[in-house]
Each structure stands twice: as C-alpha cells, then as structure tokens.
Structure to design on (335 residues):
C-alpha cells in the first residue's frame, strides 16, 4: 500500500504523488488523515520559493519540498509505549504533512472526542494566535485590535472575545473578511486604507488599543497599527514579516510611547512546561479543544472550501496567485 502525498515539485507547482507507507516506532502514532487545512501564508512562501521562508535568507531554494501543518484524522496504529490514544480514536494533530498518512510523536496527537474533523483540522493553527494573545498579557476589559483577517486573524478575534477584550477592532481591506469578523465577535471592522482609519480606531478604543495582534506580515501593516496604539500598548508580531525592506519611526512610534513589540512565532514557546503567558504547544492545543467543546470558539465555521487532494494542483495554483485565498481544507476520504 502506498501513501499519497501533496508535493511542491517546482515553484508554484503542486502534485499528488505516492510514497512508501510510514510505520510508527516507539512513542509514535500512525494517523490516517480525514481533514487537512492549508495555512496560506507559510505555504505560499514555500510554494513560490521565498528564500526567507525559514526566517533567514537561504542561498538556494530547493525543490521538491513538502509542507502542511494541521490535520485531523483517525489513529491507525500506535508504537510501543503510546498510552494517550488508541487505534480507532479521532484525533487532531500538529506539524503534519499534506499526506494521506502521517507518523507523529505522541505529544503531537490530541484526542478529539466529540469535536468534528473540520474543527479538529484547525486546532494546531489556532494555537498560533492563542500564544500571541497570551504573550501580550491581555487583561479583562482592554481594547484590542487585529490587523489582518485571514485564518489567524479571524481566530484571534474569537479568542480575544473569549478572553474579555473590549472593544475589539478587526482590520482588513477585504469587505467579506470584515463582515465575518463582526459575526465572530469583533465590535467594529475597519478598512486600513480609509482616510480616517487611525482617527477612527483611536476614537473607538478610547485613545488607542492596549493590545494588537499584527497578522498581515507586512511592514506597512505594522507601521499602521503602531499609529493605533495607546501608551504602553503591546503588539504581538504574529504574521511573518519576511521582507525587511521597510522603515519604522521607532523613536516616535515605539520608544516614546513605551510600546512593547513581541515576537510571536509559534516555535518561540516552551517545549514542555507551561508558565504564565508562555504555554507549551500541547497545552495550548488542549485549551483550544476545551474552548470548542464549551462553545467558546467556533473553528468549523471558518472553512470556506473543501476539496479532494486530487484537486491539489489547481488549489495551490490559486494559492500562488490569489491575494484573497479562502480557508481551504482537503478531504482525504475523497482521495
């Protein structure tokens, strides 16, 4: 039996290819994928061959390459010593590949229980904005702003709402995304390119936001959200700003108002032991699942399209060229 995989074989080219079936070793779990979410920012960077995809400029961009982040599926086999899941369990998984079968360490596999596969395939991705919000040390009643309303931004809006931020300002130039953010708990939704954007954001937040989640990954986005901050505000840099060719007036916008800017890459977290503001990946995934189970977080409603993995070439061609790429999952039961 072969294992179907989505591989980027050249810049802007994805193919569905077969590999050998993986076998779990000690402490590992073999998971058959059911739903599989595209994380558009990082995957676009890999797909087009961005040399800064890993946070440092690479002299050579190699293909083929394989990516993926976040799946849900069913446990097919477990290695020696695995105790938290059993064959037949529905699970969410972290750091997976776009593949029909994945072998993962036990610590990256989380029982779904009654949570659906569609929401489960977004659990790992949801831990990214959760970690960013924790690092900002949000307090109940603080005004917050989310800059960029892709999948991470829309999840951030929901989590800020659950955490008691008020008001929440959601920002994106695309009207449909702003509308969705309002449905998910944002109090206001603004277009950053409106002439009075900064004035309006400051008015709605009583002088400026105390917490900002910057998700655009663009220098212009960071520059604009800095103009919306209140004194002593905290900004989590959740988006990956890979292009360093931009200028910030650090003296006026950061130094004088005492703004704290926080690196919020998901890998910048403790591996095992969680602490205040700094939770491990597994603990954050567990928290996300509890929020879903108790109806504080809705991830399933974010999914715009579901495709067969056979459609991967066309789907990733769109990702390479479409600035308004939707939230897409693959259904591996249709492979």
């Amino acid at each position: 039996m072969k294992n179907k995989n989505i591989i980027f074989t050249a810049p802007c080219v994805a193919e569905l290819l077969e590999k050998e079936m993986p076998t779990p070793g000690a402490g590992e779990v073999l998971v058959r994928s059911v739903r599989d979410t595209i994380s558009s920012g990082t995957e676009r960077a890999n797909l087009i061959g961005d040399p800064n995809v890993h946070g440092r400029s690479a002299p050579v961009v190699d293909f083929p390459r394989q990516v993926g982040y976040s799946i849900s599926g069913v446990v097919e086999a477990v290695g020696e010593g695995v105790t938290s899941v059993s064959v037949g369990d529905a699970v969410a998984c972290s750091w997976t590949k776009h593949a029909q079968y994945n072998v993962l360490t036990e610590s990256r596999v989380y029982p779904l229980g009654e949570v659906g596969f569609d929401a489960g395939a977004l659990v790992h991705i949801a831990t990214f904005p959760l970690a960013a919000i924790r690092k900002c040390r949000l307090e109940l009643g603080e005004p917050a702003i989310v800059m960029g309303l892709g999948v991470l931004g829309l999840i951030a809006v929901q989590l800020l709402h659950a955490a008691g931020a008020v008001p929440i300002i959601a920002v994106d130039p695309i009207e449909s995304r702003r509308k969705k953010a309002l449905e998910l708990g944002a109090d206001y939704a603004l277009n950053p390119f409106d002439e009075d954007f900064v004035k309006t954001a400051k008015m709605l937040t009583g002088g400026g936001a105390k917490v900002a989640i910057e998700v655009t990954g663009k220098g212009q986005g960071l520059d604009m959200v800095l103009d919306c901050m209140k004194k002593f505000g905290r900004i989590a840099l959740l988006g990956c700003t890979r292009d360093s060719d931009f200028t910030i007036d650090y003296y006026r916008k950061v130094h004088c108002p005492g703004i704290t800017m926080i690196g919020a890459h998901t890998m910048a977290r403790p591996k095992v032991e969680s602490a205040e503001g700094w939770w491990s990946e597994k603990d954050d995934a567990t928290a996300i699942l509890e929020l879903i189970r108790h109806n504080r977080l809705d991830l399933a409603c974010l999914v715009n399209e579901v495709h067969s993995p056979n459609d991967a070439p066309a789907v990733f061609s769109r990702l390479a060229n479409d600035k308004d790429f939707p939230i897409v999952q693959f259904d591996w039961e249709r492979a």
